[in-house]
Design goal:
single chain; 79 residues; mainly alpha; 3 helices; globular
């Protein structure tokens, strides 16, 4: 019997982080930056839906997202 592959919270969060990197260096008010934020927000919601109710994967997802968010904030503060 074929079983559905278990979703990987870390990999799914990494996808979101990579998406967010596309907006790096753009001004917040830049229309392209807004488009990227919307795209990444949608991806984050979709990816979260793949792991919801799997506490281990939720924790891995959140930990990775928090790390990449902190990295981006640090990068903005050093510009």
């Amino acid at each position: 019997m074929w079983r559905k592959k278990k979703a990987d919270g870390l990999a799914l969060a990494s996808e979101v982080c990579e998406c967010r990197q596309k907006g790096k260096g753009l001004k917040f008010s830049d229309p392209e930056a807004k488009k990227i934020r919307m795209e990444c927000s949608k991806l984050q919601g979709e990816n979260w839906g793949k792991i919801i109710k799997d506490k281990t994967q939720e924790d891995a997802f959140n930990k990775k997202l928090n790390e990449c968010t902190a990295e981006m904030i640090d990068a903005m503060n050093t510009q």
